[in-house]
Automatic annotation (TrEMBL):
Gene3D superfamilies: YefM-like domain. InterPro entries: Antitoxin_Phd/YefM, phD/YefM_antitoxin, YefM-like_sf. Belongs to the phD/YefM antitoxin family. This is Antitoxin. It comes from Methylocella tundrae. SUPFAM superfamilies: YefM-like. Antitoxin component of a type II toxin-antitoxin (TA) system. Pfam families: PhdYeFM_antitox.
Length: 92
């Protein structure tokens, strides 16, 4: 029985580190269509995605202030009161 090919391309987009190193061009090419998982010692270690997908995921969609101003709870009349308790005594 022949030894398994450790550099064979995976079917489901999961690569061992050794096969990803040996076939980096193919990993990058496949990443254009879908994310490619790279495993090390059988555990997920990294994911290769296209530059377009990375740009979509990391694009800032506004400021924190804009996010808070767009909250559906804004103007809901919530009565939030800050506790005025004294700080706890902590032995240092």
């Amino acid at each position: 029985m022949p030894a398994p090919d450790k550099t064979a391309a995976p079917a489901a987009g999961a690569w061992t580190l050794a096969s990803a190193k040996a076939r980096l061009s193919e990993v990058v090419e496949r990443a254009q269509a879908s994310p490619q998982l790279i495993t090390r010692n059988g555990k997920p270690a990294a994911v290769i995605v296209s530059a377009e997908e990375w740009a979509k995921k990391t694009l800032r969609k506004g400021t924190l202030a804009e996010f808070l101003l767009a909250s559906p709870l804004r103007g809901a009349g919530l009565d939030l009161e800050r506790q005025r308790d004294a700080p706890r005594d902590i032995a240092l």
